[in-house]
Specification:
Radius of gyration: 23 Å
Number of helices: 18
Number of strands: 14
Length: 496
């Protein structure tokens, strides 16, 4: 593709304005600062950009020195998906734990405190919450990121989360439209198909998005999924029928539409990155998320050139590009207006995350067992992480139990023969077995069988979606693997 000379004319500025790119490093690269002067209106932060809250605040201040009306986006769902606390684990439980408690006031308070902390770091756009109904237990990518499998529950908590987050001047983003909950394919790797009838789609999948829109969500993120009942040919992110016909015209949504990451294989592996970006804008998307993987200036230039070329060849109308760019700028203006309002965000609630995690713990005693009073062996059975969660963030209960029960040791095990290896490593000590979505991993169930056959007083902690029947002398379901969920689980072990 021909590379156009970077200019400051309206077309090139609009092409830059619709991009939400990522970058490397914990300080602002020169190329990003230069592009902000040329029209770039948004950037996205990922785990690689975060060392501490203070460092993120300094980074966003650097960026805003170039452009004050800047959207700084982040994928901070909390719970299993955290960027702000990527190296320590989140101070807040995720959506599934909040859904398990089912107290919308608590959900609103958690989202408000999260928003307050994001705003203090200079972040004003959060790609959360997940409005997906987790209707398929085999779903490999949503799971505990969803408030649950009941449409009404997901709807009321989605609305509460949007209200809490946006009260701090941080824009919420309901995702993944029109609903990513009923799939067994991860769109990071391939293009999922969701074969639903129209009634199920409208009554189950779309209801949480209606609730988000009614609550005033400032953004909606599209899903890289094919829903034949809506569009047999194109995935939602590239479908005019879905983004414009359904979301804009039928549901009456007027805010920003942002795509999921465009380098995900569901799009880039099928349509190509540049062509996919053009198709997304033409379909009705306003902002292009890119940078989870590709995070260099060359990518930004390629996508800017692709959009400019598409306008000049007639594949994308100049009016559609201008409208998209205007929506990006309007969202930035809204965040600034709310941020400066008196009383924005309310009083800090620093312990609200731990309070919520404790309330989400569900304890089941399946048989009489002695209390846990001394050192134990923590056997963590670890599945391969999905890309949304990543492998940087620690999880489990080992460190917390080592703190509460000095002398405790820990080990991590995966297939094959995980149970036998854990039993040997335990060396006769009482075992606390930690699993994550046991129902999706047969090897994990087999490992627990081995442990429980040999040591019936084994304590089992489920840190994913608790679909399998409780077992073990003491079964503790946390409904998520955030750091605070580990703290709450360890407390429950010691409390017995």
């Amino acid at each position: 593709m021909t590379t156009f000379t970077t200019g400051t004319d309206t077309l090139t500025r609009d092409a830059l304005a619709v991009l939400q790119p990522g970058f490397d490093g914990t300080t602002a690269p020169d190329w990003v600062r230069r592009r902000l002067g040329e029209g770039l209106a948004s950037v996205a932060l990922f785990g690689r950009n975060v060392a501490s809250a203070e460092q993120v605040a300094a980074l966003t201040a650097q960026l805003r020195a170039e452009r004050d009306d800047l959207l700084v986006a982040i994928d901070e769902e909390s719970g299993d998906v955290t960027r702000l606390e990527v190296r320590t684990g989140s101070s807040f439980p995720g959506a599934h734990a909040l859904g398990a408690v089912d107290d919308t006031a608590l959900t609103r308070d958690v989202a408000r405190e999260l928003g307050r902390r994001l705003a203090a770091c200079g972040v004003n756009f959060n790609w959360a919450p997940s409005a997906d109904v987790n209707a398929n237990p085999a779903n490999p990518v949503i799971g505990v990121r969803s408030f649950g499998g009941d449409t009404a529950l997901v709807s009321r908590h989605t609305a509460a989360y949007v209200e809490g987050l946006q009260s701090t001047g941080v824009a919420a983003c309901a995702k993944h439209f029109p609903g990513h909950g009923d799939t067994n394919v991860d769109s990071h790797h391939a293009l999922p198909h969701i074969d639903l009838d129209a009634t199920t789609l409208h009554e189950r999948e779309l209801e949480p998005f209606r609730a988000a829109i009614a609550a005033g969500t400032r953004a909606v993120m599209s899903a890289h999924i094919r829903v034949p009942v809506l569009d047999p040919d194109r995935p939602a992110t590239l479908s005019r029928r879905i983004l414009t016909g359904l979301l804009r015209e039928e549901l009456g949504y007027r805010g920003l539409i942002v795509t999921d990451g465009m380098e995900m294989q569901a799009i880039s592996g099928t349509y190509g990155l540049e062509h996919g970006v053009v198709l997304a804008l033409a379909a009705g998307a306003d902002a292009i998320c890119v940078g989870g993987g590709l995070c260099d200036e060359a990518t930004v230039q390629r996508l800017q050139d692709a959009l400019v070329t598409a306008v000049r060849t007639g594949e994308l109308s100049e009016e559609r590009l201008a409208d998209a760019a205007a929506r990006v700028r309007a969202l930035a203006a809204w965040t600034a207006s709310v941020r400066d309002a008196p009383g924005c965000g309310g009083a800090p609630q620093p312990e609200i995350g731990l309070t919520a995690a404790r309330r989400a713990v569900e304890v089941t005693r399946t048989a009489p067992a002695a209390p846990v009073t001394g050192p134990v062996f923590v056997a963590t059975f670890s599945p391969a992480p999905n890309i949304a969660v990543g492998d940087e963030t620690p999880w489990g209960v080992g460190p917390e139990l080592e703190r509460l029960l000095p002398g405790t040791a820990s080990g991590t095990f995966t297939e094959p023969d995980a149970g036998a290896r854990a039993l040997k490593a335990a060396g006769g000590r009482r075992v606390v077995a930690v699993v994550r979505d046991e129902h999706r991993h047969p090897w994990m169930g087999s490992a627990l069988d081995t442990l429980l056959d040999a040591e019936p007083d084994t304590v089992v902690i489920e840190m994913g979606v608790p679909q399998s029947a409780p077992r073990g002398a003491l079964h503790i379901a946390t409904h998520g693997a955030a750091r605070v969920c580990g703290v709450a689980a360890a407390e429950a072990v010691v409390a017995g």
